[in-house]
Amino acid sequence: MFSPAVILSHPQIGENIGAAARAMKNFGLSELRLVAPQCRWPNDRAEALAAGAGDILADAKIFPDMAAALADIRLVLATTARDRDVLREILTPETAASRLREAAAQGITSAILFGGERAGLDNDELSLADAVITIPTAGFSSLNLGQAVLLLGYEWLKSADRTPDVRTRRTIAVPATRQELVDLFTHLERELDAGGFFFPAAKKETMVRNIRAMILRSQLSDQEARTIRGMIVALVKNKYRGQKKKEEE
Length: 249
Known about the structure:
alpha/beta
């Protein structure tokens, strides 16, 4: 599968290139292309900011202009925060990532273009793109180069991620045996009865069934069943201790 190349046009600051490489490494992008970098290359500051993504910097390819950098690319998406006069599709990062995934699945080479820190991509560079990507912001649309790469990289990874929207971290637990659950039911129902919970008495049987169903839905482990019984013991003990203290007073 082809992951999209990340192309930085006329980057000026080594730290930003390093931050971009680190973001790429985080989200499964590996091919970095630099168009006429304005800083010295290789760059020590870029390597310092890459923090573990030095291999991406080491393999980065340098090109004299955008046309050369795109020579073998079939799908080109360009990032820009500004409206342009030319009529073209404007994609959200999520939609762009989906389109890039579709291209990758078909073996089509693709690239995401990012402009330099000062002025972004110029009109000639944008004219080479199939569509543009605009990252929604709250009024202030200027993003650091590394941040922009990180956001698009995140959407790229997320487009193929199968992580559930909500997860509960669970330790390996042994389910409670039926006897442990029966003992819990008996213990809990005895103390609830003593505390006058089952009222009116005619509804006690229905209330007991509902409580048991509620506990069973929780799929308690053996440790959780023992913990709940310990909680019941503590509550009852403190209740009687408080009553005894009042009587002595």
